[in-house]
Each structure stands twice: as C-alpha cells, then as structure tokens.
Amino acid sequence: MYLRFLIITALVGVIGLCGLWAWQKPDQSPQLTIELGSAIVSPGSHKVSLPFETTATLAYKNSQLDSRDAEVWLKAGTYLLTREDGSELEVVIQDQTAPTLTLNRQTAYCYVNDDLSQIDWTDYLQISDYSSTATSYTVHVDTSQVGNGEVVYTVKDQAGNQSTISLPLKVVARRPGFEDVDWLASYEMFDLQNAYRQAQGLEALEWDDSLVEMAYTRCAEIGQRYSHIRPNGTSYASLFTHSYDHHAENISACNKDAKSLFEDWSDRLTFSDNMLDENMLQGVILHVADSWVGIYTG
Fold first, then answer.
1. ∠ at Cα 142 (139, 148), nearest 5°?
2. Which of 40, 204, 224, 296 has its CA at a distance of 20 to 30 angstroms from the CA of residue 247?
3. What mean pLDDT do residues 153-157 have?
C-alpha cells in the first residue's frame, strides 16, 4: 500500500510539473502564409495593405522592400504583425507563383538565310513577376528555306518557379519583282491588325496574294498623289481584278515601323473602321519605302 501511495504521489507530481511547464511556456504566435506581392506598401508611407487585415501594423525594414514602377511590396520572408488588441500574427511571405509571360507579337518573321544570332529575342517577351528572373531561350528554325519554327523561352524566378512560352517564327522569302517591299514589317502589321480584330470578337482576315500587286502599285502612287484617287484620276478600286461586295483602302505616307503605324491607324476612326469592318474577309498590307497601303475586300 505504501509503495502504491508513493507511485501515485510521484505521478501526480510529474503531471503537476508538466502542467506548470505548459502554463509557463509562452504561446507561439499563429502563423499565416501569403503569396509574394500580396503585401503592398503605400507610396511615401509605412502603411502595408494586406488581403486579410486593415488596421494591423506589420514590422519591416526598408531593405525588405522591392518595387517596380510605382508599386512597392514586401520581399519574401517572415514578418510580425501586431493587431490593435495587442495580439500578434507571424506572416510568412512566399513566392509560389510562376512568372507571367506575354509575347509582344503573335508571330516573328525573318528572311531566308538571315543571321538570327544578331537578334535580341528578349525584346519580344514581357515578364511579370514580384521577384527577379532569369531568362533563357532556344531558337528552333531552319533559315535555309521558307518554313516555320519557334523561339522557346524559359523564365525562372528566385524561388525556382518556372514558366515557358513559345513564339512562332516564320521564314519568308523576298519575292521577285517586289524586292523593295519590307515583307517583315508588312506581315507584322497584318498580324497586329488581325489581333485587333480578334480582340473585338471578329474573324482574322486571310492574306490574299492576289492583292499584292495592287497594293504594290498603290504604294508607288501615293508618293505621287496622297489620295484614294489615283494619279490618273480614277479610284483605287479601278485596280481590282475581281469584283467585291465590300472593299476599303488605308494609306499612309510615312516610314513608321509596324507597331507605330498600327497605333496610328487604330487611333484614327476611318482607318480603325476599315480594319474592324466585319464585312471584310481578306486583304494585304504592304510597306515600301515611305508608303504603307492596306487593301481590304469581302
């Protein structure tokens, strides 16, 4: 009996000590993990916008800030958040999202036998990520002949998240009789126009080779007379070799690149209306010297 009493007494003592230790051990702060870019710092202040708290204070150092343009955010790491009632929350910011990749154009073009090693292919890519990134790319194409290829981009951020995207690459040839046509700019402008149409819910136009000679003639003519009326006094439509229910022409006397010209045309009502006309089914756009001509038919 006495031995049993000693054992019970010892057990009670151990339990009591454990309870005392547990009572004396300070509570650990609850922990919450959020995505990098969720903790935005207001410009010119130390106020942090969080997706789950509006009045709490988050302690950080200036060295823990990162920024891009006018946006400032907290880097990945562990921070202590204090609420108005004095309670604390450990906030862990992690980067678990892969970089967002966007191509500046739908398709890239080059001529047969072009030296592609001189091209900075990163100019075609836009990257959105809240940490620094490393970009690599591989060009898969045979430039010895007309055909298709691609540029494959791989982008990895500091946390190891990775994204890939491919840019279609077309190898084109200069056409006999049209050696002074800038085919690369012409095709690029045609692609920009089709992307514009598709963004408005319209079908893309088909490139119509039968209109190339007409557009080439018009490029030369608008250098003599900047008008939809030809130098001989007839309409541009007199050059059609087929009859169409609908047709239109856009012209510009300039040497802008395709992107700048597209911005110009899309900002001008008549030009934009022609590009977005739902009755149009095919067309061409040519750039020769200081002339741009777009022909649309349907």
1. 80
2. 224
3. 97
